Amino acid sequence: MASVLRCSSKLRFAARIPVARALSTTAALRTSEKSFFSNEPSGPSVSTAIPGPKNQAAAAELNQVFDVRSLNMLTDYSQSVGNYIADLDGNILLDVYAQIASIPVGYNNPHLQQVAASPEMTRALINRPALGNFPSADWAQILKTGVLKAAPKGLDQVFTAMAGSDANETAYKAAFMYYRQQQRGGHDVEFTEEELQTTMANQSPGSPQLSILSFRSAFHGRLFGSLSTTRSKAIHKLDIPAFDWPQATFPKLKYPLEDHVQENAQEEQRCLQEVERLIKEYHNPVAAVVVEPIQSEGGDNHASPAFFQGLRDITKRNNVLFIVDEVQTGVGATGKFWAHDHWNLTTPPDMVTFSKKAQTAGYYYGNPALRPNKPYRQFNTWMGDPARALIFRGIIEEIERLDLVENTRITGDYLYAGLERLAQKYPEHFQNLRGKGQGTFIAWDTPKRDQFVAKAKSVGVNIGGSGVSAVRLRPMLIFQQHHADILLERIEQLLKLI
């Protein structure tokens, strides 16, 4: 982990040569810093309505074979570069949504192109292994030099998976198996005949009525098990049978934080008391608590380090596992490689799930007892993808080379200060500005959120929402101060249109 943060600042900046068709802005000229991408546009360029005629035609064609009702925009990835995303009509937008927080080091990153063109990648793609049965001879080396190089402190093992939902569900499975293992008396105790028979009928004791505790407004995925811990939007859950699992209240902080210190502390304490009560009293015993460092889909809801420290203390004294879902917050977005590094925990989480910016997925753990006592208990054909693990290794190399976690911390502070100035100037559009000291993981509420997000493309910005009323920023790790200047300028333009 420390190696990710110890790169030389001498490598931080590469030369920037603006492309001719990009729109130059005075904001981009306010700083002398150079872009990490030599061919990145100097600013957004919008020449047609969005969607334009080519995008509309392509969307109509796609709709014949694929559901496009959630379509944001069809993208020309051959023309997208760095922080900028291009559509089919030649429009170039500053992308601060980044594929729902999933692009870490820029579109068409040259180093990742080299990784993708390597013989190692070719072998991984055309000989994709069933990892549990036939891992490649270099799989340990790939993990040690990539996925595990960035492992959270105290966690030195990994189970690789396909996506964020998959990562959470396999972590839940590990928690349930661990819980029952402890009840039986240890790792080496064999299953009873009754357990083996009743599980085939989906009955106890082989299939016990255990639970995972999550929080209101949480999002942990859309697969069958993870949906039972997702509490953010009804549309995610409708018509899908759900497990009888408890939910606790996530703190609802008041902003600005410095004006509501006592109230917020009382709110967090109330929520912690509720968590402990549910663990002790819920009719389906709680095997684990899962929490996001920032509730990303539920409205960008924050809590203090003290809250998470208290949560860790509760799980420890009640012998309940603590799972931190870093699918959206992980890999540098909050100005630290893992968002839970902000908490200064006395003991690490039991498991940390990851995906999105890692471009692969899985969960980290440290306790050997979280490895099931029998083979094939935590298993599927792919168990992840070596090709994606190679990409994550390349991402880590770029983060180290360009000191991108530190860049995100510095840029985030700069951007937040600029947004504070806008909030003072346009208070009717900025409520509950949050994310100070959290890198570029910034959000605010606005009464015209949907209109704001929809019209942002007209001023050259691709941006996203969260929850009912929040605008969320999810720029890439290569987002710099001159990009922040452009974003602030375009936000102000946008506020005059809505």
What does this structure look like?
The structure is a single chain. The chain is of the alpha/beta class and 498 residues long. The chain folds into two domains: 11-109 and 403-495, Alpha-Beta Complex (Aspartate Aminotransferase, domain 1); 119-400, Aspartate Aminotransferase, domain 2 (3-Layer(aba) Sandwich). Helix content is 34%, strand content 11%. It contains 15 helices and 14 strands. It has helices at 2-5, 53-63, 98-101, 110-116, 119-126, 139-145, 164-184, 193-199, 234-237, 261-281, 305-317, 386-402, 404-425, 449-456, 481-495; strands spanning 84-86, 92-95, 157-161, 211-215, 247-248, 286-291, 321-325, 351-354, 361-365, 431-434, 443-445, 461-462, 464-466, 470-472. The strands form three sheets. A seven-stranded mixed beta sheet has the order 3-9-8-7-6-4-5, sandwiched between helices. Strand 13 (464-466) and strand 14 (470-472) form a beta hairpin. The longest helix is centred in the C-terminal third of the chain and has 22 residues, at 404-425. The chain starts with a helix and ends with a helix. It is an enzyme of class 2 (transferase). Keywords: Aminotransferase, Pyridoxal phosphate, Transferase. Its cofactor is pyridoxal 5'-phosphate.
CATH fold category name of the largest domain: Aspartate Aminotransferase, domain 2
- Please name the fourth-level CATH homologous superfamily of the largest domain: Type I PLP-dependent aspartate aminotransferase-like (Major domain)
Q: How helix-rich are the residues, as a percent range?
A: 25-40%
Count up the helices: 15
